[in-house]
Amino acid sequence: MSNRVASLGVSLCLLACQAIAWGQSPEPPATAAAKIGVINMQGAIANTTEGKKALAELQKKYEPRQRDLQQLQQGIASKQDQLQKQGTTLSDAEQARLSREIQSDQTRVKRMQEDLQADAQADQQEVVSRIGQKMVRLTNDYAQQNGYSIIMDGGPQTGLYYVAPQIDLTEIMIKRYDAANPAEGGSPSPGGTGTTTPAVPRNPAVPRATPRTTPKPRP
Q1: At what angle do helices 49-85 and 92-145 cross, to 10 degrees?
Q2: Tell me: the pLDDT tens digits for 71-82?
Q3: pTM above 0.70, yes or no
């Protein structure tokens, strides 16, 4: 019996000592708020000096093919107009010839459009990948130097509902990129023939850091 009492006393003493130790342990420090930044990566890439120059060069590269495509489309429209207006006066053989030519030209147009789109997208993707890799490295360095825990993409496809002006780093990173990667020849002038190549989209404007309209939630 005395052994049981002694054992119980030791157990109670141990529990008491543990309770005292827990009571004296310091509370864990409060976690500091994460510093978050946002960058429109697509807009940043396209609006660097190097990006503007590269996209302008692509547009110039594809202008001859775009003109050929437009001329072929105009020829189709002209033959269709001739067939419509002169159909009653043309012989059956002439009508059949025009119809075959229109069908053949339409097939060529479709093939040319597909080839132009594929080639232009491949070239554009190469530009985006080349500049994007350097932009990501600069963004990582900037985050570490300025104490950011997270920098996320705030482009139009991300679904962010609001971006505060003070956390939008897009213009900052454009300037840092231009300083680290000076493009030869400077920024291209917006000249040219005025023909816009559909397969090479225009440079997206850098979005200003303004409150975003919250879209209706998807079901």
Answers
A1: 160
A2: 999 999 999 999
A3: no
